[in-house]
Structure formats: structure tokens, C-alpha cells
């Protein structure tokens, strides 16, 4: 890519996920005039770096408020600026015609539905960092390409970055951003991704590097997941509960009757009277204490693994990583089952 607003960039080669928690400085990339055009982590809000947002919907307005509060100059690009001028200016932003607005920054945030991607001009967004914040609807065909990859194909000379789509417009408008939200970010352009990671951290989010744009589908799936953090805990809890219930059922109700039958004695239905109270009661207790043990055991495994490797910076196996992340929900589930045991 020729020198311009974002200069020459290198393709991303990291397809894995890693939490970007370091506070390292990301150097600025000079634009065609030799001026620094992107924000770095050690710059102050008083420099008033400009960000252009295409779209004035709920998320577009929320991002405008968020960036303005963080000291950015925000210009909203619109085909009809007079329509939303008061709304934008009331929250500290500016609004201008699309053609003029996109020339005022090399960072363009596209906050419009994916159906409107066709209205974007490849020539006007050439050599820009284009941030896709769109989310696919529930009825979107999963066999189709992710929205960010479709946008990159439409804008071949732009550096498309997938970010900010997991944020709540309501939380942004209420200012609930400081360290409270992780922002998954991916792009084929490492320098463009670093710019957005740096901006996300400056605004107050926790950026998470998802590697190349091929991982955009995973990011776009996040808003559609329902209690995903409970999945491992619920599956384990159900399996343990079913096993414990069958164990108690055979021990208290079935095995005594099998013994009666082997002695030519009639089936005793009276032992099932304790099923609702005693059997279920003990099943919940067994499941609770098993889940509690499962909360502590992966930490021990992780400690021994780190001692064996001689470092705490190597990545855990995927199964252990999932287990460690599920400890909090397993603990909550263990507590709920323990309460029913009393």
C-alpha cells in the first residue's frame, strides 16, 4: 500500500487469541503530510484527535458520547447533516456531509447496518482504517462470510478492523466503560489493529487481540450467545446431578426392591415415599460438594503445570483454560444447590 493516511502496513499473522493487557506505547504512523494522524497511549486528550463515525443510530450516538468524553473530536458523517445536527451537537460532536467528514480523519467507524454497506464508497475510504461495529441478525446465514470480511472485500484498499460490536449502547451512554468491558479486536492489518487497540484502551475498555480478520465470525457471534459463561458449569452440573440421582435411586429405592424380588417378596412401593425429599435432597448435596471441588482442582493443575514448564507465561491447554474460566459459575451453582440441601 502506498504512503498515505495510514502508511504501509503489514498483514497479520496471529490467528490465536491473546489478552492485550500490556501498556506498551504504539507509535504513531505519519500521514502523507508528515503529521501524526493516530492516537498513542501516552498522548493526552487535549490533542483532540479526530474520529469519524458513519451512522447516527443508537450505537453511533453512544460511541460519539463515549469518544467525546474521552477527549476526542468526533465528526459524524451524514448524507443529510441538518436532520440530526442538534442531537449530535448537544452531546459535543460535529456533523458534516459524508464526503467532507471522511476527509477529516484516517479512522472511520462504520456504525450502520450491514445491509447499508453497499452505500460506502471504496474511493472515499481508500487508505483509511475502517472499524466495523455491525452485528449480524439472528436469521443471517452462518455459511456466509462474516460481515467484516464482506466489508474488507468491498473496501480492498482500506484496513478493516472488527471492534466495538460487543458493547452496549445503553452502557456507553451512561458512561459505564471504565475497565468494565472487554473489546475483542481483529484485523488483517497489524498496525491498524494496534491503533484501535490503543484507542480502546485510552477510552477505558480492555482490548482483546483476536488476531486476523478470519476470526471476525467469533467476534460477531458473541452478542448472540446466551449465558455462554454458564455453559461449562451447567453441563458439568447436570452430568454430576444425574449420576448422583441414579446412584441414590438405586441405593435407596431400586436395590432394596431387587433384593425383595430375589427372595420372592413383593415389590415395596413404600420406599419411594422418600424419593422427593431424601433422594433429591442428597443428590443436591453430592452435586454441590462435587462442583465445589471442581472449582479448586483446576487451579492446582495449573500451578503444577506452570512449575513443570518453569514459566507462568505459557498458554494452558484449551480444556484447562475453559475449566479455569468456568470456576466462578461452578461456585455459584454449587452455592445454589447447597442452599436446597439445608
TrEMBL record:
Signal sequence bounds: none
InterPro entries per UniProt: NAD(P)-bd_dom_sf (IPR036291), P5C_Rdtase_cat_N (IPR028939), STEAP_metalloreductase (IPR051267)
Transmembrane intervals: 232-250, 285-305
Tagged with keyword Transmembrane helix: yes
Annotated spans, Disordered: 1-42
UniProtKB keywords: Membrane, Oxidoreductase, Transmembrane, Transmembrane helix
Molecular function via GO: cupric reductase (NADH) activity; ferric-chelate reductase (NADPH) activity
GO cellular component, one term: plasma membrane
Residues annotated as domain Pyrroline-5-carboxylate reductase catalytic N-terminal: 51-135
Listed GO biological process terms: copper ion import
Domain of life: Eukaryota
Sequence ranges of Polar residues compositional bias: 30-42
PANTHER family found in the cross-reference section: DUDULIN-RELATED, F420-DEPENDENT NADP REDUCTASE
Name of the protein this chain belongs to: Histone H3.1
Organism of this sequence: Armadillidium nasatum
Gene behind this protein: H31
